[in-house]
Write a structure and sequence with these properties.
The complex is a heterodimer of chains A (322) and B (536). Chain A has helices spanning 3-32, 40-58, 61-85, 90-113, 136-139, 145-153, 158-176, 178-188, 190-195, 200-226, 238-248, 253-272, 286-301, and strands at 276-278, 282-284. Chain A is an all-alpha fold and 322 residues long. The model of chain B is unreliable at 512-516 and 527-536 (pLDDT under 50). Chain B starts with 7 loop residues before the first strand and ends with a helix. Chain B is of the alpha/beta class. Chain B is globular. The chains are: A mainly alpha (322), B alpha/beta (536).
Chain lengths: 322, 536
């Protein structure tokens, strides 16, 4: 494998990690506040559909993005009402939303466009286009750093940069702001926040709103950036993989980026090198490489990689007590 | 000059939860710069009243005045603004946060954290200087002891400029030495002009530290008196509503033949720690052996071995024949077959299943009783219920409803349930751990009477308790454990708290010439070490 090939693999890794990273950071807010969000998948799916449909209808991908985020936000708020206000089971609420999104997108998509649940192919302004960073051309001649800049860092679609710039931002919010302190506290011991005179319900709703908006960006990225339109079940379990990455990262943003890059790399390898020839001895079939992210998910969720200490009060509805 | 306004004045506070009236028309005046005790049995409405004051609940009717001004307290934020700080029985701390972060949480100065943390660090230094509240601001809560955690709660309140500090059963989790330390801090806070409300059900604490005491019973405030004008017997009577014997009333023991012989017992726990070291003792019928010691010095393990769920080496004879100590065949069932009954130290986890009903709990361990079987397949629930009701009535469990879940009973009534289950089986040996922990005074008296009645019936009783009063009052002989060994045996009428306290700290008579402070330090250390091991 030559250097350029290597860079292209990493380049593909970045693109494929983006959606996972956005979803993972989305889940981080929800789970840090003490709400399990198994519904990342559903929120991404509804957002992917709405973003693609609205982008097609309006001709503007930005309008599509906003609509997708709004749809995801609505889903997050349903989850909030069920699990925060009515203290319902968070897993059940999340799974219900996943099923709802899975059915709704296909039914509405087929009714409107009659393409078996797909939306029409997006083109032009209805889809995100690559951004070429300044000096990419001029610098490409510089040895080593040139190609890294022009091939790897430059030339992505806007949401890729949004996702990776969000990582330090999330870290900063979480560990350097008042909101972050309260968010972490509410997931660990909500009564400590309550007795300090801060609303637990308010904190958890704020967290879920951020989760909804980030999930919306993730979904919109799938259908308007990575692909050119919505396809049935196009999230393909990425919501669950993002959740696994979150656990792997032990609910920390920088680590979340690492975990998502690892999953992205596995997916990139499967895409770029369908059949890997091992020293001419045997061939690793594409079916195997494509399965790798899911195998890794099982390994992580099975707890084989270290002990993950989740926020102490995760999954428990808050009931005021003395 | 006008009369000083009370720091807190409550007028006609009432609060109901459904049909239960937790607070009935309560009025109270707490003067500034005093320590005001509120005493009452569990469920008397003390905590409800304080929760109203701290904005957790809203009163159905009544008025609150703070420093003479009528104040509405709809939420905790309002209480904090009014200068009220609360130290809850169960600490409201984030375990993975540092002391500093816990203090700042909810009282940040702005959107950014760093300036708040810097300011809080300075503030903590000056609070430590003013009140002797030294805590490492960067320590994580999960790494510091319970006494320190409580300090953090007090610091949280002071950081929020609280002038009125409410402490809810603050000594329940503390060792005696830590409790003394807390009282010194409270006295200092009082000297600095703070007003303190101390909620407790321990008479000794009230007598020791308060200026004024209010007594609550069944949701009503029955009396407010100067502490100097009252005494423990009087307070106990007001709390319970009838005469209460604070001293255990019993006749001298009439020991019979030996029932239990323990020889060279050694216990090593799963972590490899040598918990019980070469312990030997005997208990005869008609005799109570009290085992004193700071929690974590091997008493619990000893009970567990005798109760059948921990392995040991050595020999234990019951009625002349050995019981199995290997753990291979020993369990509660095999012990019950040898007429050994066990009232475990932790009734909520080992004695009862909290979500199960009283009659189900009553059958546990005795579910093979032929009287409980309808046929080979089915249990006779009707009989179990009737049997449970009868036992509940004999043991004065209130309410005597077999269908109520164990968690719906108060602590004292839960304990009576367990005692009824075990004592009614008329065992030759009763193992009983912390029989009155978290139990009301009225119920304590009853529980002590039941244990003595079993003794008078000629049975052997092993009592483990961290309450020295209880050990001294109930036991016919007292053995003191320290670091897994029995340090010595005493007769209750020939010893006192001081001598036992020394033994509990591992100091035998020969070296008994130590200052009280030294002993306290040792006790605190023993308690701290025990907790640390418990966590590990």
């Amino acid at each position: 494998m030559d250097f350029l090939q290597f860079l292209l693999t990493l380049d593909s890794t970045l693109r494929l990690s983006t959606v996972l990273l956005l979803a993972c950071l989305a889940g981080l807010f929800s789970e840090r506040s003490g709400i399990v969000d198994i519904g990342l998948e559903g929120k991404m799916l509804i957002s992917a559909f709405v973003a693609a449909a609205i982008a097609y209808e309006s001709g503007s991908v930005w309008v599509g993005l906003a609509a997708g985020m709004a749809a995801s936000l609505v889903f997050a708020m349903i989850h909030g009402v069920a699990s925060i206000l009515y203290r319902g089971d968070q897993i059940i609420s999340g799974v219900a939303l996943n099923f709802f999104a899975s059915g709704l997108t296909v039914v509405v998509g087929d009714a409107v466009y009659g393409q078996g649940g797909q939306t029409p192919v997006l083109a032009g302004g209805a889809r995100f286009n690559e951004i070429t960073l300044p000096f990419a051309e001029t610098l490409s001649g510089v040895p080593l750093l040139g190609p890294i800049y022009s091939e790897l860092i430059s030339g992505h679609k806007p949401l890729v940069y949004v996702a990776f710039l969000a990582v330090p931002l999330v870290w900063w919010v979480l560990f350097r702001t008042r909101f972050g302190l309260r968010l972490r506290a509410v997931g660990e011991n909500p009564s400590s926040v309550d007795t300090a005179g801060v609303s637990v319900v308010g904190m958890r709703f704020k967290a879920l709103m951020i989760t909804g908006l980030l999930c919306g960006i993730a979904g919109a990225y799938l259908s308007t950036s990575q692909a050119a339109g919505f396809g049935k079940e196009m999230t393909a379990g990425r919501g669950y993989i993002a959740l696994a990455a979150l656990i792997f990262a032990k609910w920390r943003p920088i680590h979340a980026m690492g975990a998502c890059l690892l999953f992205g790399l596995l997916e990139a390898i499967a895409n770029l090198y369908p059949n890997i020839d091992v020293f001419g001895l045997f061939t690793i079939p594409v079916q195997f490489t494509q399965t790798l992210p899911y195998i890794l998910t099982v390994i992580i969720l099975g707890g084989f990689i270290g002990r993950a200490m989740p926020p102490a009060s995760i999954g428990q509805p808050y009931v005021k007590e003395r | 000059m006008t009369e000083t306004a009370p720091a807190i004045e409550l007028k006609g506070i009432s609060k109901s939860f459904g049909p239960v009236q937790a607070n009935k028309d309560i009025s109270i005046r707490v003067m500034p710069g005093t320590i005001h005790g509120i005493i009452g049995e569990n469920g008397a409405g003390k905590s409800t009243l304080m929760s109203i004051l701290y904005g957790f609940y809203r009163a159905d009717s009544g008025e609150i005045f703070i420093n003479g001004r009528k104040t509405e307290i709809p939420d905790s934020q309002a209480a904090i603004r009014a200068g009220i700080g609360m130290v809850f029985q169960h600490f409201k701390l984030v375990k993975v946060f540092s002391v500093l972060e816990n203090v700042v949480l909810g009282a940040e100065d702005g959107e950014m954290l760093t300036p708040s943390l810097v300011k809080a660090r300075d503030e903590l230094t000056s609070l430590a200087r003013d009140y002797g509240l030294n805590v490492d601001p960067d320590a994580l809560i999960e790494e510091i002891g319970v006494g320190m955690q409580q300090r953090v709660e007090i610091l949280k309140a002071l950081y929020r400029q609280a002038d009125i500090l409410i402490l809810d059963e603050p000594t329940g989790v503390l060792t005696p030495a830590e409790a003394d330390q807390l009282f010194r801090i409270l006295a200092r806070l009082k000297d600095e002009g703070k007003t303190i409300i101390l909620i407790t059900h321990k008479l000794r604490e009230i007598m020791e530290i308060t200026d004024t005491v209010s007594v609550m019973r069944r949701g009503e405030m029955t009396a407010t008196v100067k502490t100097a004008d009252t005494n423990p017997t009087d307070l106990a009577e007001r709390m319970v509503g009838r005469k209460v014997l604070l001293r255990v009333d019993k006749t001298p023991a009439k020991p019979r033949e030996t029932i239990v012989q323990v020889r060279n017992l050694n216990v090593t726990d799963s972590a490899g720690v040598h918990r019980v070291k070469d312990v030997s003792f005997e208990i005869r019928g008609g005799e109570i052996l009290g085992l004193a010691g700071v929690a974590g010095n091997g008493q619990s393990e000893l009970l567990e071995v005798l109760g059948g769920y921990e392995a040991a080496t050595g020999e234990v004879l019951v009625n002349g024949s050995p019981i199995d100590l290997t753990g291979a065949h020993s369990d509660g069932q095999s012990r019950r077959a040898r007429s050994i009954a066990h009232v475990p130290e932790d009734r909520q986890h080992e004695g009862l299943i909290m979500n199960f009903q009283a009659w189900e709990n009553m059958a546990f361990g005795y579910h093979h009783d032929p009287a409980y079987q309808r046929n080979r397949l089915l249990m006779d629930n009707t009989t179990i219920r009737a049997d449970t009701r009868a036992k509940m009535e004999r043991f004065d469990v209130r309410p005597p409803d077999p269908d109520l879940a164990a968690k719906s009973f108060s602590g004292g009534n839960q304990q009576k349930l367990v005692l009824a289950r075990e004592i009614e089986r008329n065992p030759d040996l009763l193992l009983v751990g912390q029989p009155t922990r978290g139990v009301d005074i009225g119920a304590i008296e009853f529980i002590h009477q039941q244990i003595i009645a079993l003794r008078d019936a000629g049975k052997a009783i092993l009592l483990v308790s961290v309450e020295l009063d209880e050990i001294l009052g109930l036991s016919d002989r007292i053995a003191v454990m320290f670091d897994g060994r029995i340090m010595g045996e005493r007769l209750p009428h020939e010893t006192d708290e001081k001598e036992l306290g020394l033994l509990m700290a591992g100091i035998t008579d020969t070296e008994a010439d130590h200052s009280v402070a030294e002993v306290e330090a040792q006790l605190a250390e023993a308690g701290g070490a025990a907790r640390k091991e418990g966590r590990a």
